Amino acid sequence: MSTAIADPRAPQAAVRRKGPNLEKAGWIYMRVSGVVLVVLIFGHLFVNLMLGEGIHGIDFAFVAGKLASPFWQWWDVLMLWLALIHGANGMRTIVNDYVATETTRRVLIWALWLSAGFLIVLGTLVVFTFDPCLGLSDTSADWLLEQCA
């Protein structure tokens, strides 16, 4: 009994599934988010490392000052969201490529999205609820006590 193997260059019948094409949306997201992330990250690095005192000026006061501005809050949150979703989508692609069993694949993909979602929620809360005056004591720096008074 012999079985014929199809010619790999032979045209295949296209099977079109109904519903949204999530793989295509993920592929487009990776390209668009990658370009936006390059702009966000290099802007972040330029402001933090090149302007002002450079790396020597980065301290708690610098971070508190940046997080007091809605512009920088949204900049950081956008960078956080795009990077975490971009990374989780990339890991999802790797899991789909290399994990053979369907059950293991589903567990890993669920774990990826749950951990990414948890980190997104936690990071967003930190950025928007950051209060440098919370928990001050008498041993805090003088400049911080003056700002919070």
UniProtKB/TrEMBL annotation:
Localisation per UniProt entry: Membrane
SUPFAM superfamilies according to UniProt: Fumarate reductase respiratory complex transmembrane subunits
Chief localisation class: membrane
Presence of keyword Nucleotide-binding: no
A Pfam family per the record: Sdh_cyt
InterPro entries: SQR/QFR_C/D (IPR034804), SuccDH_FuR_B_TM-su (IPR000701)
Stretches that traverse the bilayer: 26-51, 71-95, 107-130
Keywords: Heme, Iron, Membrane, Metal-binding, Transmembrane, Transmembrane helix
The name this protein goes by in its record: Succinate dehydrogenase hydrophobic membrane anchor subunit
Species annotation: Microbacterium marmarense
